[in-house]
């Protein structure tokens, strides 16, 4: 029987990084935009903040601008953003064979459920990328700028052969963590991703944002609302960082001098790194705000929990999506943002 192949559907930052890691030990094909396919074909370096690195170069035949007419016996790592997910699933419908496995790697909530709706009969697993990745054009590097593992759903009936094939994502640059509580992990990752919107709004590097107590207080308020929702739904959040999920808001509210001392791991970030939502705003693209802060507000409403701060942040980001001045706006400090959100 033929070996499983790996396909990266959506070869951007995360897809390029995952594919480069998988490509260290297995054959992988990339489906994506021409600019990313060109970078991968020219060769990239994968690095992390701790100084680890490895090289990867895709062959010309592994770089595809369109889906093949048939995809069989493959692990399809679905790494498009939520905003492009429905379109990709529609394109996959006529070409995917029943012996394929799809791994949904989207932030936020609902991607796996949507994939099951569009691809009935296909095995769908959820994967969660627990780190941030940025592209350094001058160095031709995909840089993992924060700590975090790759969390992968572990069903009870997963065959040993598939476990081995999926383990190709395991590498010194990205540790693999098999999880039976993948829904809880998704909520815990969402808690961390709530800061993406604040980074996009204040127009500052992530590290600079975290050194601003006002910004941290806003992020803490967003997290408080999420924790209220998960408590109402009886979801126990796992520990994805050195600080347990329920204590993160308190840590973020600490005075600057104490935060720097007790939460130094949060500051192990490239000084210029920014969230993907910030990059989307700068490029004039629709953001994933509905799947992050918007999802918290929506799930809160379903659980009878008011989430006014997440709702207000969602509205604010949507207004920036349609602003002609977004690319030229000045940075915003945390106290000014608190005033806008009526947190004072």
From TrEMBL:
EC code(s) of this entry: 1.1.1.169
Residue stretches making up the Ketopantoate reductase C-terminal domain: 181-321
SUPFAM superfamilies referenced in this protein's UniProt entry, alphabetically: 6-phosphogluconate dehydrogenase C-terminal domain-like, NAD(P)-binding Rossmann-fold domains
Tree of life domain: Bacteria
Alphabetized Pfam families for the sequence: ApbA (PF02558), ApbA_C (PF08546)
Enzyme class: oxidoreductase
Catalytic activity: (R)-pantoate + NADP(+) = 2-dehydropantoate + NADPH + H(+)
Alphabetical keyword list: NADP, Oxidoreductase, Pantothenate biosynthesis
Coiled-coil regions listed in the entry: none
Pathway: Cofactor biosynthesis; (R)-pantothenate biosynthesis; (R)-pantoate from 3-methyl-2-oxobutanoate: step 2/2
GO molecular function: 2-dehydropantoate 2-reductase activity
Domain Ketopantoate reductase N-terminal: 7-153
Positions of transmembrane segments: none
Family: Belongs to the ketopantoate reductase family.
Role of this protein: Catalyzes the NADPH-dependent reduction of ketopantoate into pantoic acid.
Name recorded for this polypeptide: 2-dehydropantoate 2-reductase
Organism: Alteromonas oceani
């Amino acid at each position: 029987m033929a070996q499983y192949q790996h396909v990266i559907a959506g070869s951007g930052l995360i897809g390029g990084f995952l594919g480069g890691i998988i490509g260290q030990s297995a054959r992988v094909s990339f489906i994506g935009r021409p600019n990313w396919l060109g970078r991968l074909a020219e060769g990239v370096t994968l690095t992390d903040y701790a100084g680890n690195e490895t090289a990867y170069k895709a062959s010309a035949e592994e770089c595809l601008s369109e889906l093949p007419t048939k995809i069989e016996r493959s692990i399809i790592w679905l790494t498009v953003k939520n905003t492009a997910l429905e379109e990709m699933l529609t394109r996959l419908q006529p070409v995917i064979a029943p012996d394929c496995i799809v791994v949904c790697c989207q932030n936020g909530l609902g991607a796996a459920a949507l994939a099951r709706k569009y691809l009935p009969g296909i095995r769908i697993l959820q994967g969660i990328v627990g780190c941030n990745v940025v592209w350094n054009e001058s160095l031709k590097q995909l840089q993992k700028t924060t700590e975090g593992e790759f969390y992968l759903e572990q069903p009870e009936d997963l065959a040993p052969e598939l476990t081995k094939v999926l383990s190709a994502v395991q590498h010194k640059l990205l540790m693999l963590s098999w999880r039976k509580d993948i829904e809880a992990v998704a909520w815990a990752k969402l808690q961390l991703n709530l800061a993406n919107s604040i980074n996009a709004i204040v127009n500052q590097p992530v590290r600079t944002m975290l050194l601003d107590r006002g910004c941290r207080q806003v992020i803490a308020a967003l997290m408080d609302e999420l924790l209220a929702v998960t408590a109402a739904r009886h979801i126990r959040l796992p520990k994805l960082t050195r600080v347990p999920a329920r204590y993160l808001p308190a840590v973020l509210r600490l005075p600057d001098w104490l935060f720097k001392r007790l939460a130094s791991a949060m500051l192990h970030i490239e000084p210029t790194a920014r969230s993907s939502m910030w990059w989307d705003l700068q490029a004039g693209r629709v953001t994933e705000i509905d799947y992050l802060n918007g999802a918290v507000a929506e799930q809160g409403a379903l659980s009878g929990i008011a989430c006014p701060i997440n709702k207000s942040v969602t509205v604010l980001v949507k207004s920036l999506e349609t602003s002609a001045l977004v690319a030229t706006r000045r940075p915003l400090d945390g106290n000014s943002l608190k005033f806008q959100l009526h947190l004072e």
